[in-house]
Design a protein that fits this description.
The chain is an all-alpha fold. Helix content is 77%, strand content 0%.
């Protein structure tokens, strides 16, 4: 149930992010069509791949960030045992963020873009995002400072969101040297997903685990310290595996390779941590679906970001696979496991409380979870097959991209079919969240 009225400000963040999630997947299907079929020039001119791709990737960033912000605003009052410092700031921040996102998407349709992959938003809109981020960090910080209780989880969460906001600044300027430009570009892209976002993930998951299972705080925080330290330790230096291609000193082949190999360690700890909590829990889990999401997050995170990332970023392998569809395979599985499932875990924790529902019918939610999880596994597998084929044809046989792509189109058609199934799982999940229905405890579901 809602314990603090200011928690309700999180709802618009979460609700809008679910809508953007659906749009992002739809845009991804259009990209698969572009990859899998030869389209007429008129259709390409009307809505090109170059327009659809930044919309797809930026919608991903937008809805995940909205989820993080909404999640932080929902759990902070509970963790700090007080209302948010200012719901007015939260609403202003929401308006700025959404306004910038809408203008950016419209701008993409007319070619208004920086041209940096994943950071295509034009500089004027970057400054709007910066203002929104500063408001968010200030609201979180003041809420924590004014809290009557202090905890490691609060400071970890504040550190994560601050780190997230600061890193974004490095992607705004243009650098005359392309190598320097991409050097700082990776500070945003890699250190977001392997640093700041991971800290936010660990903090939020730790809180939800405590709430759902009743595990003692000291048990959760012990693992939180270890996971966060390792995320930062391996993630920051592991950024070096992106420097292979920037003309950086040779030692990054070693540093980047070694620490990239260590990056699965904190994720493996998260998996172990999750299973330990299963054994340590003191409370019965009222809604098992949320625990399914937590376990799924840990396992998928380990496989997609950890194991697959480890294999793909080793220098001896990345030399051939860099920038291929193997990267796409790793990216889809890693983002889904680490952050998509995180946001959905937050929503299944928060949405019943918005509606004062203690126990809900989760049958439809289970269908959504398993449809998304299984289809994403096969989608990543298909992208991986296409990437290995691409690597062999282009990097080993030295066949041109267009000719190689003709041999890959079959796999993208399969990806399109799997993507449609995935969209079905997304729609089921979103519908279920918006239409949660209570059931009496002990009643059949």
């Amino acid at each position: 149930m809602i314990r603090y009225e200011s928690q309700r400000v999180a709802y618009p963040y979460m609700a809008l992010s679910l809508i953007l999630f659906c749009l992002q997947v739809v845009m991804g299907l259009w990209l698969a069509i572009n990859y899998g079929f030869t389209l007429s020039q008129g259709l390409v001119d009307t809505f090109s791949f170059a327009t659809a791709r930044p919309i797809h990737t930026n919608l991903l960033v937008a809805w995940l960030l909205l989820g993080f912000m909404g999640g932080a605003y929902f759990i902070l009052p509970l963790e700090c045992e007080r209302e948010l410092y200012s719901t007015k700031i939260a609403w202003i921040q929401f308006g700025l963020f959404v306004g910038a996102a809408v203008v950016a998407v419209i701008g993409f349709l007319f070619g208004w873009t920086q041209g940096k992959p994943l950071l295509e938003i034009p500089v004027p809109l970057d400054f709007v995002i910066v203002v929104a981020a500063l408001l968010f960090v200030a609201n979180v910080a003041i809420t924590i400072i004014k809290a009557k209780v202090r905890s490691a989880l609060q400071w970890m969460l504040l550190g994560g969101v601050t780190f997230l906001a600061v890193l974004y600044l490095f992607g705004i300027p243009f650098y005359r040297d392309l190598n320097a430009d991409y050097y700082y570009w990776w500070w945003v892209i890699h250190l977001w997903v392997e640093g700041a976002w991971e800290v936010v993930t660990a903090s939020i998951v730790a809180f939800i685990i405590m709430e759902v299972t009743g595990v003692e705080r000291k048990v959760v925080e012990k693992w939180l310290y270890a996971e966060t330290g390792l995320f930062l330790f391996t993630g920051i230096i592991g950024t070096g595996h992106h420097y292979y291609w920037l003309g950086a000193p040779d030692y990054w082949l070693w540093w980047g390779g070694i620490f990239s190999a260590l990056e699965p360690l904190p994720i493996a700890l998260m998996v172990i941590d999750t299973w330990m909590h299963v054994r340590e829990r003191k409370n019965p889990i009222i809604n098992p679906l949320i625990w399914t999401y937590i376990v799924g997050l840990a396992i998928y995170h380990f496989v997609g970001a950890g194991v697959w990332g480890f294999i793909h970023t080793l220098p001896q392998i990345n030399y051939y696979t860099h920038g291929s569809q193997v990267t796409v395979s790793h990216g889809h599985m890693a983002f889904f496991g680490a952050y998509v499932l995180l946001n959905l875990t937050i929503y299944y924790f928060a949405f019943p409380r918005f509606r004062n529902i203690r126990k809900y019918n989760d049958r439809l939610g289970k269908w959504g979870f398993w449809t998304m999880s299984i289809s994403m596994f096969f989608l990543s597998l298909v992208f991986g097959v296409a990437g290995i084929l691409q690597t062999y044809l282009e990097r080993l046989l030295d066949i041109g991209y267009s000719t190689a792509h003709l041999n890959m189109m079959f796999w993208f058609r399969i990806a399109l079919g799997i993507g449609i199934v995935f969209l079905g799982g997304v729609v089921i999940t979103v519908w279920h969240l918006f239409t949660l229905k209570p059931v009496e405890e002990g009643a059949a579901e």
